Amino acid sequence: MIEVQGIRLDPDERRAWRGDQEITLSRKEFDLVHCLMRHAGTIVSRAELMEEVWETTFWTSSKTIDVHLGWVRRKLGDDAREPFLITTIRGQGLRFETQDHRQPL
C-alpha cells in the first residue's frame, strides 16, 4: 500500500482511495498515479512516464499524458489551476507532492 496526502493506492489489487472513498481509475490512469506516487516528491519526466506507463520510448506529443492527467486530477479532487497533489514542473515533468503547500485561507 502506498499513501501520500490522503491518497491510498494498492498496487496488488489495483485499487485507489481518497480518504475513505474508493476511486475508479482506468488501467492507464492507475499506472500514471502509481508511477508518480512511487516517486512522490521527485520530478518524473514525461519521457519516463511514456516509458513506464505507456511502455514506449516513441511519442510525438505529450497530449496523451495531459489528457490522462486531467482525468486523474478530476478523480482525485486536484484542481489543475491550483494543484496540490500533482504539479507540473515546466520543462521537467510532473511531481506528486508529499505535502499540500497551498496557503491557508
TrEMBL record:
GO terms for biological process: regulation of DNA-templated transcription. Residues 1-98 form the OmpR/PhoB-type domain. Residues 1-98 bind DNA. The keyword DNA-binding applies. It comes from the Bacteria. Keywords: DNA-binding, Phosphoprotein, Two-component regulatory system. Pfam families: Trans_reg_C. GO terms for cellular component: cytosol; protein-DNA complex. Coiled coil: none annotated. One of its GO terms (molecular function) is transcription cis-regulatory region binding. This is DNA-binding response OmpR family regulator.
